[in-house]
Amino acid sequence: TSIHPRELKIAVGESTAVSALLTLPPEARTCFVLAHGAGAGMTHKFMADVAEGLAGRGVATLRYQFPYMEKGSRRPDPPAVAHAAVRAAVAAATQHCPGLPLIAGGKSFGARMTSQAQAKTPLAGVRGLAFLGFPLHPAGKPSSDRGDHLAEVNVPMLFLQGTNDKLAELDLLQPLVKKLGT
Fold first, then answer.
1. For residue range 12-46, what is the model confidence (pLDDT) as tens digits?
2. CA 170 to CA 133: how far, in whole Å?
3. What is the pTM of this model?
4. Interior angle at CA 116, CA 113 and CA 120, nearest 5
């Protein structure tokens, strides 16, 4: 059974608004605030499939666009703008899913922007982060520098990572993740 997502607009600062899709199953137990990757927005099949799969398991999702994607640009927003969008989406989830525990995260770029925002100033009401492919480094340039901020995150984190991800070699990601819990 498919649950039709509800279209929302989320204000990001004074002059920007982004589109969002709220999928809210009747017996939702939690809400996942889900940010898209750099190259494809919230309506991409992967994002829609994740939202539908989670809805079938009693998890609401709030998918949203970053401002650059809303404008049709290919260049991702600077971190401060992306972090503001993450915060606005979390606030919208709090408003539209009152009483539900919140998990925030996303796919690739969305995962990194969410974790950076959480590391800078904890996201209000967010109990944990979930990443659908964390981008640890640029393709072909193995490094773990993009994960340094994760040590500042003070909520549980779930990493769902493919074994062939060109943006996160497992031999770099696994030791980083292992170190986080200590």
1. 988 899 999 999 999 999 999 999 999 999 999 99
2. 11
3. 0.95
4. 140
